[in-house]
């Protein structure tokens, strides 16, 4: 099973520029989480801070008792081996075949024999659907295949925490749909904790158990997917609905007068947002073990959630044949 990641009070600046401040959240063990946010909100910086590649100014990232911010470098290095990181561009070596790219972490960080390395690499290549392409160079394959090769490389050390940095960038909608299914399938097979940084709404709507959003140097929200998908927070609504009206501008944040002028337009223009079902693993794969753990966790915290999120969660679980019968909140009850 994956490992819980507890982030407390994380703050990061580059010189005088504050990237984000006082970010606190918990990535539940074995669940899939997504971090949304407009371009330039520090999502990639957040990923690199979790794994210890960048050092935040304040705060902590606790993994198995090790603080990836403040612990000795030796402990951070060892804990980093629990991670698999899929970079935005795949980050493959152009002069190496896909096989050698995917084998690279095993050759660098283990003393496994080549026969064992070949077995592991070919297993991962099969998982991501690249059988037959292992001898090709990165320049000879499509961007989507390079993404999958990068994902296979992230998996060879059997990570318990998988970080994916904008895995959809540069992909068309069809390839993005295949990638979304692949991420769910991986979680079903590995039961790893996963965090996906993206601004793709299709991935955000169908893949995660939990969702968060960074904006204006802060974490707007993080929690069960229903909280964000039903949120009426202006920046969340604007982002999910893809509207011009709202706090997010083309190049900078909008001033108060502009926001006030747009507010009525946004309310009138936005239709009710529906929550689409989460993707299921492909036929033949085991069910995701995270689903039962998540249900138990979310139902324990149900009374602390906003009304719209509670209603959406209860409706979802009431429709689940395996779920216990759950009371639906009465209209206007505030539940």
How would you explain this protein's 3D organization?
- The longest helix is centred in the middle third of the chain and has 18 residues, at 173-190.
- It contains twelve helices and ten strands.
- It is 39% helix and 18% strand.
- With 335 residues, it is an alpha/beta fold.
- The protein folds into two domains: 5-224, Rossmann fold; 231-273, no CATH class.
- The chain is globular.
Content-based structural category: alpha/beta
Distance between the termini: 34 Å
Which segments are poorly predicted (pLDDT under 50) over 5 or more consecutive residues? 328-335
Write down the overall mean pLDDT. 87
Shape: globular
Task: Write down the secondary-structure element order.
Answer: EEEHEEHEHHHEHEHEEHHHHH
Largest sheet: 6 strands, mixed
Strand order of the largest sheet: 6-7-8-3-9-10
Looking at the overall shape, the CATH architecture of the largest domain is 3-Layer(aba) Sandwich
CATH level 3 topology of the largest domain: Rossmann fold
How many domains in all? 2
Helicity, in percent? 25-40%
Q: What percentage of the residues does DSSP assign to strands (E)?
A: 15-25%
How big is the Rg? Answer: 21 Å
Top-tier CATH class of the largest domain: Alpha Beta
Number of strands: 10
Individual helix count: 12
């Amino acid at each position: 099973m994956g490992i819980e990641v507890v982030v407390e009070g994380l703050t990061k600046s580059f010189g005088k520029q504050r990237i984000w401040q006082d970010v606190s959240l918990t990535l539940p063990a074995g669940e899939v989480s997504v971090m949304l946010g407009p371009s330039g909100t520090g999502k990639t910086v957040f990923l690199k801070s979790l794994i210890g590649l960048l050092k935040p100014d304040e705060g902590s990232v606790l993994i198995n008792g090790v603080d990836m911010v403040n612990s000795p470098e030796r402990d951070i290095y060892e804990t980093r081996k629990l991670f698999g990181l899929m970079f935005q561009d795949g980050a493959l070596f152009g002069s190496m075949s896909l096989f050698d790219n995917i084998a690279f972490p095993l050759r660098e960080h283990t003393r496994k024999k080549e026969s064992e390395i070949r077995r592991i690499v070919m297993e991962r290549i099969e998982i991501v659907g690249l059988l037959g392409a292992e001898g090709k160079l990165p320049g000879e394959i499509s961007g989507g295949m390079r993404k999958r090769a990068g994902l296979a490389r992230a998996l060879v050390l059997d990570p318990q925490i998988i970080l994916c940095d904008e895995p959809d960038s540069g992909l068309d909608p069809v390839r993005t749909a295949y990638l979304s299914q692949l991420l769910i399938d991986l979680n079903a097979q590995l039961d790893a904790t996963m965090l996906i940084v993206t601004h793709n709404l299709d991935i955000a709507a169908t893949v995660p158990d939990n969702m968060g959003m960074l904006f204006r140097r802060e974490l707007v929200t993080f929690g069960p997917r229903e909280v964000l998908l039903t949120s009426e927070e202006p920046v969340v609504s604007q982002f999910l609905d893809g509207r011009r009206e709202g706090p997010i501008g083309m190049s900078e944040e909008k001033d108060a007068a502009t926001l006030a002028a747009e507010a009525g337009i946004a309310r009138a223009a936005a239709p009710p947002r529906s929550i689409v079902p989460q993707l299921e693993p492909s036929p033949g794969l085991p069910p995701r073990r995270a689903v039962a753990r998540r249900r138990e966790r979310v139902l324990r915290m149900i009374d602390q959630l906003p009304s719209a999120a509670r209603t959406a969660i209860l409706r979802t679980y009431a429709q689940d044949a395996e779920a216990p019968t759950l009371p639906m909140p009465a209209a206007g009850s505030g539940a």
